[in-house]
Amino acid sequence: MMEKKHKKSQHSLVREIKDNLRASPDLGIKRCMQCGLCTSNCPAARHSDYDPREMVKKVLDNNLEVLDNPDIWNCFYCYTCASNCPVNNSPSLINQILREKILNTGGNVSRVAEFIEFGYNYVEKGVGTIPSTFFQDLVDDFGEDYPKLKHDLPDIRRKLGLKEYNLKGEAAAEVKNILKASGFTQRLEKLKKIA
Ligand code: SF4
Ligand code: SF4
Predict the structure, then answer these.
(1) When comparing pLDDT for 12 and 112, which is higher?
(2) 75, 79, 83, 97, best to mutate for ligand 2 pocket (most atoms within 8 Å of CB)
(3) Which end of the chain has the smaller Cβ count within 10 Å, N or C?
(4) CA 170 – CA 128 distance, rounded (Å)
(5) Going by CA atoms, what residue is nearest to atom 7 of ligand 2?
């Protein structure tokens, strides 16, 4: 899907981020001093043009161009930036909220399409198992050992004394109910329709 141009809203991006349920009250976004430590430690910045320091600057400037920057989709939420930031800011969290905002307005859904099955696995099995669509890529990366490992995994887990991987019965039903009550399942359906 084409990226959308974002209109000015009456709230600043900083306000929207601070008001987001996921943001802790002491999130240090306004204290960001543009030191660049986040970018210097960011693996996504090392391998692409993504720049968390610059993303935070655009948010502080209420520059909505940040929402149209395809590079912000390269962050993979390792949280290295958050653990190193001297003022308790979290570019990782800011990135998540920006991407959520983009998805909520129908933009860039194609960037999450291949992950939708993760969500369905979570709903069905109570755990976020690897989608089957990733299977061939994993065989390409790890060779024929991967299908063998997948086949032998239940046996290996049994020998190690580990419980079954998927949730069953009451626990699985409880997760399903929580995901439905929180709107997660409906959001998946919506994303699937427009992806
Ligand atoms: S978010 Fe933190 S680490 Fe990154 S530039 Fe701002 S103050 Fe520095
Ligand atoms: S969470 Fe994202 S922005 Fe932060 S260090 Fe990891 S890849 Fe970079």
Answers:
(1) 12
(2) 75
(3) N
(4) 18
(5) 75
Q: Is the pLDDT confidence value at 164 over 80?
A: no
- Asked if 74 contacts 53 with a C-beta cutoff of 8 angstroms, the reply is no
Answer yes or no: are the C-beta atoms of 53 and 34 closer than 8 Å.
yes
**79 CA closest ligand 2 atom index:** 1
Structure tokens at 31: 């204290």
User: What is the residue type of 75?
Assistant: C
Q: Which two tokens stand for residue 83?
A: 């653990």
**Taking the model in full, what pTM does it have?**
0.79
Residues near 183 by beta carbon (within 8 Å), at least 6 away in sequence: none
Query: Domain residues of the chain, as ranges?
Result: 13-108, 111-194
Residue 81 near ligand 2, beta carbon < 6 Å? yes
More confident residue, 112 or 8: 112
In whole angstroms, give the CA distance from residue 88 to residue 175.
32
